[in-house]
Amino acid sequence: MKKICVIIPIYKEKLSEEEAYAVDRSVEVLKNRKLYFVAPAGMNSTWYESKYPQVKWETFATKYFKNIFMYSRLLLSEHFYSRFSEYEYMLVVQPDVWILSEDDKLDYFMQFAYDYIGAPWKQEEKLYPVIFKGMNHLEKVAKKWGIPFNQPLMARVGNGGMSLRKISAMLDIIKNHPVAVKISKISKRNNEDGFLCYYLNAKDKYRLPTSEFAEQFAAEQTARQLLEEGKIPFSVHAYEKRVGDHNIMREYMEHRE
After folding, report:
1. CB of 163 within 8 A of CB of 235?
2. Does the pLDDT at position 147 exceed 60?
3. Which one in 60, 167, 228, 252 has a CA-CA gap of 20 to 30 Å to 1?
4. What is the 8-class DSSP label of residue 120?
């Protein structure tokens, strides 16, 4: 089995200037990996093929790229992960991710064999069973896992925008919880990373890192604080919102230890 594929989700025919800087960085640092654009079927790819000829393409139905809720449906589907089943791991790198390291450190993070690593949320998120408080099927699901009804699980790891995922674990969750997945796909109350992190926390069979370790891999809500303290993570998700433009990100990259 091949070790890892890198997935860059896109939905428009040309990236913005800031997105292009970020994707340029991702492609450069991860140039020795198998890189894929995940895009809507039929989208004009001329701009990307000219700028990133080394990146392969996997397309899915256009409906999955209409909004964040439909994108979550795609990332909670068996056919999405099955498309990459020849790989053990998947790295999801959205176009608003800036990789600060000049070195590809994925081998370091993969050696710990975690099922999922994502940028920690600043405070523990309350993840109700199936993320749908009050749904009729909730009590049955909670009972199955030995969780008191409507008692939330607390989780900090983590955000899906920059995330390292073991593909077999993602498929295991999706295949073993078809009712929960179906309900998730018709709701606009949760995102795919919250759904997955609930089940990753609900059962001991999955391995998750501490939030401190996850912050070495990616930061989002805590990014500015970490950088100002001189703690440089491998990457930052939502960098424009959390830190600043690509010039500011380069400053942190240049002054890393």
Report:
1. no
2. no
3. 60
4. P
